[in-house]
Automatic annotation (TrEMBL):
Residues in the signal sequence: none
Domain of life of the source: Archaea
Protein name as catalogued: PAC2 family protein
SUPFAM superfamilies (alphabetical): Cgl1923-like
InterPro entries in UniProt: Proteasome_assmbl_chaperone_2, PSMG2_sf
Pfam families with a match to the protein in the record: PAC2 (PF09754)
Amino acid sequence: MARIQVVEEDLELDSPTLVEGLPGAGLVGKIAADHLADEFEMTYYAALHCDGLPQIAVYEGDSSELRPPVRLYADESMDLVVLRSDVPVSPTQVTEFASCVTGWLDANDVFPVYLSGLAEEKEGTPELYGVATGDGEAELDDAGIVPPRGGGMVSGPTGALLHRAVETGLDSVGLIVQTNPRFPDPEASRAILEHGIGPIADVDVNTDRLVEKAGEIQDAREQLAERLREMDQDGSTQAQPIRGFQ
């Protein structure tokens, strides 16, 4: 049965913000989510048992405990939740996955921040853009985040989550950052953390370690990035412009 199973019942959250870290273009969401969870030493809070996720078990360094491949981590003091994923969502079941996640968000009054990389040439610091559903646009205005230039779309599981937010009227924002789509891009993740997640979730996150470990992150995430490149394009979260129709 598709569900989100809370494993830390003693942890209390009050209308928290969720940062989604599904793997996609540049792995910008995954790198950002992993950094948040590690930097703040967040608590393993819930397991996702949603359609579209492979039935595998993962283990982390220095621990023999097995966990599901997609998990929620939380910090009670910051009212912050992070979705960490070690696997891509099946491209044939993104609708079911989005319904599973969105139902839990709505039932628990969670404000989601969805992350996506835009395959676009960068000059200097990557540009950050924002899209919104419901009343989420006010959060973008307060953070000074502008809409993308021209029309476009967000595909993959993050696109399905945003589509479901539109359909259900859920308040949410989507952060879109310029990225190199072929390789893990810690620089793009840093831009999202500092200029997007920081002001929206009202957290002060130190990204120095993220930059210092850029080489290590590149090596650790390359295998996952390769698996994503081998998948059908619709299976990987990414933002892309729509050209010729405006």
